[in-house]
Amino acid sequence: MTTATSSLDQAAAARQKRFVLRSTRGRTGLLKQAALQAVCLFVLLTVIFPVIWVFSVSLNPLNLSRPQGLEIIPPNATLEAYQQVLDKPTPNPISFLDLTLNSLKLALGTSLVSVGIGVFAAYAFARLRFRGRAVLMLVILAVLMLPNVATLAPLFVLLNSVNLDLPFLGDFKLRRSLLGVGFAVISGLLPFAIWNLKGYLDTIPRDLEEAAWVDGAGINQTFIRIILPLSVPALAVTAFLGFIAGWTEFYFTSTFLGGQVVDHTLALALNSMVGQFSQTPWAQFSAFSILFAIPPAIVYFIAQRWITSGLAIGGVKG
Amino acid sequence: MTAITARLSTLRRPRAGGNQRAAYLYLVPAFVVMGFITIYPLLYQVYMSFTNTELKHLNVRLGLTPDFVGLQNYINILTSALAIPNFDFLRIIIYNLWWALSNVAIHLVIGVGVALLLNSRGLWLRKFYRALFIIPVVIPPIIVANVWAHMFDPDGGAINLLLAGVGSFMGVPATAFHIDWLRQVASPIKGFLPSWPGGPDLSLPLAYYAMLITNTWLGWPLNSVVATGALQSIPNDLYEAADMDGASGWQKFRNVTLAYLRPAMIPYAIYGFVITFNLFYLAFFMSQGGPNGKTQLLVTQAYYLVNSNQLYGVGAAFAVIMFFILLTITLITNRLTKATQTYSL
């Protein structure tokens, strides 16, 4: 008897629950849907407005110094700005291809070196116990706290003091070279890579390694056979973040390179196109911006899921 | 039996001595490189901060050596006595803190708001919006800063043209919208931040609002991504239980939604605070720290001291001071994170 009533009660409760569910979770009303869509469209408009604007400005003819209106397809639309950018983007005697190659060299070089060296240190910090571990980790954290721009003065003065008289290349001034800039970038990128990768390695469960140890694997074998394959996504994300840092690097290139035009990068060329007294037509600036931003944007879009989770672990150094 | 376990435990952990040596071997490459290009330069920076190193000392042919000036660089910075125009240390710090705080507050509200919007039940085109709202995140900030700098240009900039277009509906002449957003010296709102006699001029120029708009565009989408993750982790049972208890919509929002959002959003807001505090590109490319240095941040001032003024000794001292400011911020935010962790569910 008691069981019967309680099961009846349960049925009633379930029915009531279902009723409540239906009343609150039912199909969203058309009016509400329209209101939500209106807000979403407004947000979308604010998000894509600058993107559409820069595309439309890039279509302006080059004899127009700045746009006259807000048309999406401006009058006399042409692609000559892109042609000019690909040919010779700035008054400096350097082509877009050479600028791109310099940016690529800097971005790839610094990111691969940082990740390649950093992953060993990250493994030591994440998995091995040794004397001085806490102190060394504090050193890295302290370095990470300081933005790159705050290391400009000592790196400038120290790299400036390296002057080599090379047998074939002649006088070589490290500060005025892409190599010098690369050292300065790695100075901040390497500690970031170590910290980011350590954060990821900390999240890998230890079971696999312990099984390997039981099977007689040593530290090196565990690292090569287990840790490295498992951390490929983290290595890729860290390398990508490093690549973006190198691709858009501005503090060191603008302070170090000066008139060494052959070593100029895309970011530096962008800087010489803008500014209060620049004569560059806006169409040219816009076309350059689009070509500059598209490669990292595409990779980011594709790898977005991994990158945001990678960001959540580490953090970016500006 | 004990022999087996003992053997297993020795197997499981490679010997302590070997472990130590291997650890150092793994650290050697990174710390040799960092020793040369990270740690030594930072120590050298501290030494340099006590000297008057300038451009002339770098020219080998002149053979000049910098003088040791003790704490003079630090004193000159802290008392705003540097011989460069518009340098006011106290104003830079207060403005920089306000810049980061105001931005993060706006990012948080819009980010959570849009996440809630996209989380509404039965919303059409949800995936489409989610994919497109991420656009500001994928564009390099150096481009964002330069594009918006052009959009805020008084002649031909999109913002003024847009305002003129809206104004024409209300009969306002287009000439009224020749606003020099980034360089106008007069502040639109007086006394926004508190001022005191003899204190720095803390009035916020139009450039601040222009950069606030730009950084809002740039910053809210990632907040929205984080908030969406937190929203999706809320079990439906909680809302059903709240419905059974007859909770109102507002009560459900406060006691369920916000309670779950808080532990995810507060650490992210702190992270965003530090990123915004050190955000170089907008202040450099949009306002150049102006007008009259009113939107100067610590990072841009550090750059100008080395790049334009070529005062390497002063720049080094400025960076050391920055280190202690950021250390203080880190210690405070760590406390905040720990304090909020105890609330987490």
What is the fold's blueprint, element by element?
The complex is a heterodimer of chains A (318) and B (345).
Chain A: H1 2-25, H2 30-58, H3 80-87, H4 96-127, H5 133-145, H6 152-160, E1 163-166, E2 170-173, H7 178-203, H8 207-214, H9 219-230, H10 232-247, H11 251-256, H12 266-273, H13 282-313
Antiparallel strand pairs in A: 1-2
Helix pairs in contact in A: 2-13, 3-13, 4-7, 4-10, 5-7, 7-10, 8-9, 10-13, 12-13
Chain B: H1 2-12, H2 16-48, H3 72-78, H4 89-118, H5 126-132, H6 135-138, H7 141-151, H8 158-169, H9 206-232, H10 236-244, H11 249-277, H12 280-287, H13 298-307, H14 312-341
Question: Would you mind describing this structure in some detail?
Answer:
The complex is a heterodimer of chains A (318) and B (345). Chain A starts with a helix and ends in a 5-residue tail after the last helix. Chain A contains 13 helices and two strands. Chain A has a two-stranded antiparallel sheet. Chain A has two domains: 2-58; 85-313, Orthogonal Bundle (MetI-like fold), CATH 1.10.3720. Helix content of chain A is 70%, strand content 3%. Chain A has helices spanning 2-25, 30-58, 80-87, 96-127, 133-145, 152-160, 178-203, 207-214, 219-230, 232-247, 251-256, 266-273, 282-313; strands at residues 163-166, 170-173. In chain A, helix 8 (207-214) packs antiparallel against helix 9 (219-230). The longest helix of chain A is centred in the middle third of the chain and has 32 residues, at 96-127. Chain A has 318 residues and is mainly alpha-helical. Chain B has a single domain (88-341), classed as MetI-like fold. The longest helix of chain B is centred in the N-terminal third of the chain and has 33 residues, at 16-48. Chain B is globular and about 80 Å long. Chain B starts with a helix and ends with a helix. Mean pLDDT of chain B is 89; it is low at 8-12.
